[in-house]
Structure formats: structure tokens, C-alpha cells
Amino acid sequence: MKKKDFILIGIVFLIALAGFGFIRWTQHDGTQVIVTVDGEEVYRTDLSKDQTYEIPVEEGTNVMKIQNGEVTMSKADCPDQICRNHAAISQTGETIVCLPHKAVIEITSETGTTELDGITQ
Length: 121
Description:
- The protein is α+β, with helices and mostly antiparallel strands.
- The protein has helices at residues 3-26, 82-85; strands at residues 32-37, 40-46, 51-56, 61-67, 70-76, 95-98, 103-108.
- The chain is built from 2 helices and 7 strands.
- The strands form 2 sheets. A 4-stranded antiparallel beta sheet has the order 2-1-7-6. A 3-stranded antiparallel beta sheet has the order 3-4-5.
- This is Protein export element.
């Protein structure tokens, strides 16, 4: 590798680091949790309240748990368990989805809308 190759790699690395920093700087903590089943809102609550909520689905059981400002799917009897194994969410725009039960947990701000990103503007 030549000296110019190292300079190019360094510049690309700095641009990537700046982009990552910008994303983290503009990302906001959410304040509300919205639960929808088959496209219809079934529950809305404040993210700061520790609680457990059983999501009403026809095909089985899903249980959402809010603890320390983070949301997880603590119980699900769907076959793939992807929603249960999903990492805890707490930032505006993050979601946990259970496709077999058509359940979606979404973090929003107080206004109930997520901010536009660079692609949707």
C-alpha cells in the first residue's frame, strides 16, 4: 500500500465517524409506547412507567414489558421468537414486530409522530 492509500482510508474513516456521530446526536429518547395489532392501535402509554401489558392477539399471547425506560417483549408463543429475542428499545422510531401475531410496538415522541430521516424528507 502506498501513502495515498492510507490517506484515502483515513478520510473515508473520518467521514464514516462523522456520519455516525451525527446520527447519534440527532436521535432522541422516546416518551411514549404505542402498541398496534393488525394495524389498529390497542394501547398507548408513557415510557417512564414500569409496567407489563398483555397484548390482545387472537392467535396466541404476547406480553410487553416496560422497565427503566426500555421496552421488551417478555413473552410470546409464536414459533420463531424473533420478537422475544429482539433487543430492548427506547429511542424514537424503534420498533419490535411480531409478524405471526401482527403486533407492533413502537416508540414515539410526545406528539406521537416520528421525525423524518434523510431518505423520507
